[in-house]
């Protein structure tokens, strides 16, 4: 298949994008992520791969340049599949292979892929949508992707600076020929805000709910884009924005943003201190959101992805019941979900919960098995997916006179609500509009929301080991299979504590083992986490200083 017309690929690779790094990198849970200076040839090769993927799928493919919540010297890239979802797992291995082959083996690798998938339409001018976040390194890395696309005669369409979920949305719009929405930024704001304003009606406040939120843009694309969102919202929601320095400020994600707030459990820098005011933070590419507030004593209260998940699932459950249509709804979480949230949602709200391994693709995949699948990671990444059958059922029912007026109102509401949601992937902007819609409907302020259940104290720790691959897990990462004996030790430790739970797993993004623990008190939780960490250190080849057990 390598004919003369593809000579440019290899010339480019040799002259302009030579492989500059010897060590291999891996297409992980969120694509490639490393120092921006090491990514040029990787970007070029992802441009090539995107064209091949698009020809194989006979569809538009996306390439997003971002390193999400990582600090500014880093950057990264991930591919977006035709329905706007993450790249299919079997192609992750190809991405890894493409990134790591020597320059003089690139041609062979391309041919190998073409052969394996029997790609015969190598002349199709497939469209590749390219998006990037606000990092100073992003524009020139985007150029490398574009060169890769052009080298294989694909058609790059550069969307400029967009959020990750916006790019996912554009890909889906393009592939559904506009049925999902207009594939433009304006189309995106219009779809979301029209639905939002429609549900909210003319009463912007309700009960304890006030329509103002303090918003931390993490000095990234989430700040840049909210300006447009605000215009489209026409005062129905007042977004007071902070941390909105855009390019070149060097402060992206620094002491602010969703990852900082969630992992440090702290109020971010740059926001005004106002007791009981509803605040939210997004991450560097705006695909995660967490809420929080400071109480009268300046105590920090976090409303993370679990809280959002329970709020959303609970509300949808209510509406679904009002419609009188039989729809099965489920919530998908990971082992990191706070035990109290799982208990609340299963016992109180009676919504079934599924647990899957960490990583958006696993959650998304499982959510697809329900009529309405809600998924959220504790870190604030999540969305809701409605099956096509569900959408059809709602459409039919809306026209069916045998439903009562009340039922039809609920059906209509649910249909509009679907348009507030970006179903392709977790989307901070869309999730914010969804949370605000539900709080408004319930007439809740942030403390009413928090009162649903009380989180169990929890602790995250990390341990460095010689080779993190010695840790193997099963049962959605809740059970550790190797090294032998470790799980038994964890069980013994956990059994000493009331409401104790702990698990360990190798990180997919860093060279470490992660430990999670929860128990009924803060002191017990810290102790349990450290004890488990020490066992990992002892049995899994820990390096450096052994974890200390607090007394
Ligand atoms: C990536 C994942 C995120 C996951 C995190 C876990 C995507 C888009 N992102 O950021 O879902 O929570 O990795 O990191 O899948 P870890 O494996 O280092 O704990
Ligand atoms: Mg992100």
Query: What's the CATH H-level homologous superfamily of the largest domain?
Result: Alpha-D-Glucose-1,6-Bisphosphate, subunit A, domain 3
Number of helices: 18
Task: Fill in the CATH topology of the largest domain.
Answer: Alpha-D-Glucose-1,6-Bisphosphate, Chain A, domain 3
**What is the radius of gyration?**
24 Å
Low-confidence stretches: none
Spatial strand order of the main sheet: 1-3-2-4-5
Describe this entry's structure for a reader.
It is a single chain. This protein is an alpha/beta fold. The chain has 4 domains: 155 residues, Alpha-D-Glucose-1,6-Bisphosphate, Chain A, domain 3 (3-Layer(aba) Sandwich); 116 residues, 3-Layer(aba) Sandwich (Alpha-D-Glucose-1,6-Bisphosphate, Chain A, domain 3), CATH 3.40.120; 116 residues, Alpha-D-Glucose-1,6-Bisphosphate, Chain A, domain 3 (3-Layer(aba) Sandwich), CATH 3.40.120; 82 residues, Alpha-D-phosphohexomutase, C-terminal domain (TATA-Binding Protein). Helix content is 41%, strand content 17%. The protein contains 18 helices and 19 strands. A 5-stranded mixed β-sheet has the order 1-3-2-4-5, sandwiched between helices. Strands 7-6-8-9-10 form a 5-stranded mixed β-sheet. Strands 12-11-13-14 form a 4-stranded mixed β-sheet, with helices on both faces. Helix 13 runs antiparallel to helix 14. The chain is globular. The site of magnesium ion has 6 residues, from loops.
